[in-house]
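Notes on consecutive records. When two proteins share a document, each keeps its own sequence and its own token line. Never mix them. Below: protein one.
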Amino acid sequence: MKLKFATKSLGTIAALLVVTAVFSGAILAQDGPETLVVTQANPRGWTAAAPGADTRTGGAVNFVPDSSSPAPGAALQLTTTSATTAKAQYMHATNTLLSDVISLAYHTKQNSASFAGGDASFQVVVNLCGPTSGFTTLVYEPYQNGTVVPSEWQQWDVDAGQFWSSRSVTCGASVVAGGGGAPFYTLSNLQGSFPSAVVIGFGVNIGSNNPSYDVEVDLFKFNNTTYDFEIFSAPTTQDDCFKGGWSTFNPPSGPFKNQGQCVSSTVPQ
């Protein structure tokens, strides 16, 4: 049984996610599907750093070339050293009713791991009792939902799988901390048991006590948004360059120096 989410520092992460998501406005909703390219230059709200995430000494999050990824070009890489305290985490804040969560998925690849089923876990950070109470993290482990095949990209239908909870929470219904395993819960079960639950974050993780991991993630999906992790990104129209947009791109030739250079790149040669 592999523990992939350490409970230390959860309060810090919860505080940031609540401030970022809950107090930013109304519950989020999306009109239709979209794919966002995420790069180091334009992380689109993702972070590996405290207080939004809990990457620790010995853990690292990088964007790496990978022509075999499901969106060929690059992928997100999470690694840990041989230290059992190493941890790598990449997170994104949100403010979404758990009852509105309809689609969760991602692709992973295990390059190497000290555990045969080792892979990046999919994490849903949630306040089960309402906007600001009942904090826990729901953790989906690929090896608990199928067979991890080393060196192969695999797609995981997370919303149809099983999760364990990082904490015990009671508010009408209850969940019991699994510590890396049973008891397990399904998304539909949790939605029915906790109608006021609010998701305040999501992401991927290699927890402590998982040394010597090298895994990759791509096409991470939360509801109607799919995140494509790439090294390079470029504008598609001139409008993308305005209002500071030029500084968020990372084309193969290197970052733009100003708005004009960005605009010029959209003109057919």
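Protein two starts on the next line and is unrelated to protein one.
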Amino acid sequence: MPDAAPDGLQMSEADLSSRIQEVFDRFDKDGGGSLDKQEMMMVFKTLSPTFTPKQINVFIKQLAGSDGEVSHGELMAWIKAGSDEAREVLAVIVKETGDAMANTVRETFQRFDSDGGGVLDRDELARVFRTLDSNFTMKDIDALVKDVDRGGDGKVSQKEFIAWLKRGSDWAKSVNKALAKETGGARDERIKKAFQKYDATGDGSLDIEELRKTLKVLGSFSNDEVTKVCTDLDKSKDGEISYDEFAKWIKSGLGSKEVMKAKAILAPSNSDGLEGVFYNFCGAGHADMDGKSFKKLCIDTELTDKKFNATQVDLIFQDNRVKPKTKKTLDFIQFEVALEILAEKKGHAKADVRNQVLMSGGPRIVASATKAIKFVAPGDRPQSGKKEKPKRTASERRIAAILKAPLNETVGAETWRKDVDNTQLWKVFGLDSKAGQTLKRIYTPSYAPVSPKGRPASALSANSSVNATFLTKSMSLPDIAKSQGGGARPKLGSTFTSGF
């Protein structure tokens, strides 16, 4: 049976607990599980702007314990006690958590209110509209902002935004329809899919060290960025991230540039993932895009051509519609404006240019030839102080082998021989020279000595010519060349290199 809530409101304890949890999820900025005095002040100011500072101080004084903080259980017990102040607070909580449209707007503000001030400025509103519908142009967004901000102060509260949606203009109907697709269960489903992608073990939790490795592998984060992101995500410091922790972290619009970059890449805030591609081109250690990175993006995604060159890309980057002249980098919203101007210049549809960027996924990596680097292992002596011996040519190595060969080797089976065909080498010198005769003798397949006049080997006198065995054991090939009678002597480096 539902309990009788103050002012006749019928509500079960579970329903009351759930509504209070929504309040904590929204205002517990540090994720500590309790609200401090400053956070409680923001609760009452945001939920009911009609509360006076005096009323708020009374609420906080009744709620805050000796430690100055309020837990979920303490707030629930205070409301159930039914004091006049508790009745006022409960009425506001029920109204803010029971209206579907209010829930949608609240989630939107939580996501895009980057400074936690409870209102959206012009840039934050522009980000809302661009995320809800990427087809909105700069003119559309200007018209939307003017239509919502009836007060003209450049800021819109949740109350103003809800009132605008309820007016039901064509713009309001379009935005309300888009909000349904980008909030609530639809967004929860996208976040859940992202979480499951990184949950390698499937046990419903992320190991912070594994996530640290994943961020490094992605290549878009420096070591310093990885440390900041992991510290911000693992507030409990237990090394494990549950789905609820991950979802709450992703949904929060608060965080440093590094943290917002990680959220966009791990679980893109817009449905197509363009923000993740933007950060990939920004590169490790950067959350904004400089002119060089913007130019690389245009080249890598083949947006440049003969008619639309790098000079025109630079002009778009410097366009005062994109960013102030004094600013040297683009944030994501300014980047989207730049793409819109680029599409206009090229005469292409904005959606086509976005898709071309999306298809790239990130910078194109070009391999380059590099010299091999020698690393000296710890304990090894560096070799740089020693002079390396010059390398020998193939013929020089062969000659050295001949000179070092044992004297008692069998002719034709010497250790210096290789599987190289030198049977025609004698033609270089000719058979009218002693060198030619000797080479013919050495490299004839049967290795039988042959005289120039066709006499058998046995007829050769021991001292009638240079003996082959003597040549191979005691003479180098240059000496063989010198032994020919007259004529030009071939150089060892040119004539013998091809044969040995």
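For the record: The chain has four domains: 3-98, 102-182, 271-372, 394-496.
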